[in-house]
Structure formats: structure tokens, C-alpha cells
Design a protein that fits this description.
Elements: H1 3-6, H2 16-32, H3 40-54, H4 60-70, H5 74-95, H6 98-109, H7 115-130, H8 133-150, H9 155-172, H10 177-186, H11 190-216, H12 230-233
Helix pairs in contact: 2-3, 3-4, 5-8, 5-10, 6-7, 7-8, 7-9, 7-11, 8-9, 9-11
Length: 234
């Protein structure tokens, strides 16, 4: 966008399309109760329309021309494509049973007192593999609730365990949309970003894991949700 046009858009108004996108996507997703039922394209269209509206001082045709040219940034398009593909990858992993297989592998070989740490580790692994924290939570949450109910455990705590693991894996995943967008826009290497995040996320994950080990000592033996197929995990 040119300097003359940016002069008319200052402060928080300049980044308000991002807020519109996030709030619209979040609001609709919460209303329907499923983050994957809300089409990303619809939220993008609403935010895009708002971006054109706030660009005052120029004819509408000029605003559309400016928006269309600047929205074609390769960095932005990479982020959008990776975000969409990560969601598809998460759905595929869930439908073929890879998520259930990962959880059941942890339940099969871990002692009862290590169920909570194992669930946390499984969430870390899945999120790191598929590159999306939201996709990990969507895929793991139903299994986690079922597991908590079978053990008469706290459903909020079990779900919180999955959330923490999902955020850790997404923070370090090489195929996360946020990772790719950050590295391309800042001009740094992927492994440099990974190393920087590792020093932040790994100590927090280790501390969380130690806490879960102490808490998990009170958990009884968990039943397998389904048969374990190691090939699905691979």
C-alpha cells in the first residue's frame, strides 16, 4: 500500500482486519461448536471486505486494485496454503485412525501412573507431526474425554493436558503455518527459528511433564480405546 493511502489508516485501525478475521472465525466456530465447520475462506472474505472499507480517501475501484495487488504476496499465500493443508492433514490423520493408534500405544506400554504424562507426550508428538495445535485438539479431545470418563478423572484436566501438548508441538513443527510465515517474512532459516523456540518451549515442556508425573500417580489403569496399529503411527 502506498504512503498516501497508509496516511489515512493509523494505529489499531491498520491491523483491525486481522482482529475481524480472528473474532469472526472464533465466534462462528464457538456458535456451531466445531472449528473445522467454519470455512476459512468465509472469514477471509469478511476481513478482506473490512480492509477495503477502512481504506478511505480513494475511490472504491482503486481500493480493490491496491488490496488485490498487495494480497498477492507470496509470504501471505504460503501461510494460507500451509494453514489449509495442515487442517486437511490433521483430518486425514484422525480419520485413518493414526491419532487413536498413537494414544493407545502410550496406554498399552505405560504404567497407570504415567497415563497423564503419556497423554501429554502423545499430544506433543501428534502436533509436531501434523503442524497444527487446533487440529490436534480437535482430533484428540473426543478420545481424551472418553478416557477421562472411563477413569472417573477430571475431564477439564485431561483436556488441559492435551492443550498443553498441542501448543508445544505446534510451536516447534516445521510444517506449522505460523512457523513458515514467521521464517519467510523475517528472512531467517527454519532451523534457526526451531533452535530459538526450542530454548523457550522445551524447558516449559519438561517442567510440565514433571508436574504431570506427580499428578498422574493418582490415576488408575486405563483401558485401550481401540486396537493399536503401529503402521498408522508411522
Amino acid at each position: 500500500m502506498s504512503h498516501n493511502n497508509t496516511a489515512h489508516i493509523n494505529g489499531l485501525v491498520a491491523i483491525s482486519p486481522i482482529a475481524v478475521f480472528l473474532l469472526f472465525y472464533l465466534a462462528v466456530s464457538l456458535i456451531v461448536g466445531d472449528f473445522y465447520k467454519m470455512p476459512i475462506a468465509v472469514a477471509l472474505m469478511v476481513a478482506s471486505a473490512w480492509a477495503v472499507v477502512i481504506m478511505r480517501g480513494t475511490p472504491l475501484s482503486k481500493r480493490v486494485e491496491i488490496f488485490s495487488r498487495d494480497a498477492g504476496s507470496s509470504n501471505v499465500m504460503y501461510m494460507i496454503w500451509i494453514f489449509l493443508l495442515a487442517g486437511a492433514f490433521a483430518s486425514l490423520a484422525k480419520e485413518i485412525g493414526a491419532v487413536e493408534a498413537t494414544v493407545n500405544l502410550a496406554l498399552k506400554y505405560l504404567p497407570a501412573e504415567m497415563i497423564i504424562p503419556g497423554l501429554f507426550f502423545a499430544a506433543c508428538f501428534i502436533s509436531l507431526s501434523i503442524g497444527t495445535s487446533v487440529g490436534t485438539v480437535v482430533a484428540l479431545a473426543p478420545l481424551t474425554v472418553e478416557l477421562a470418563q472411563s477413569e472417573s478423572g477430571s475431564i477439564p484436566f485431561f483436556v488441559a493436558t492435551v492443550l498443553s501438548g498441542a501448543f508445544f508441538g505446534d510451536n516447534l513443527s516445521f510444517i506449522s503455518d505460523t512457523t513458515i510465515a514467521a521464517t519467510r517474512t523475517q528472512g531467517c532459516k527454519m532451523n534457526d527459528k526451531f533452535k530459538a523456540n526450542l530454548w523457550i518451549a522445551l524447558p516449559a515442556a519438561i517442567a510440565t511433564l514433571v508436574l504431570y508425573i506427580f499428578i498422574g500417580a493418582r490415576v488408575s489403569h486405563a483401558e485401550l480405546i481401540a486396537d493399536t496399529n503401529p503402521w498408522l503411527i508411522i
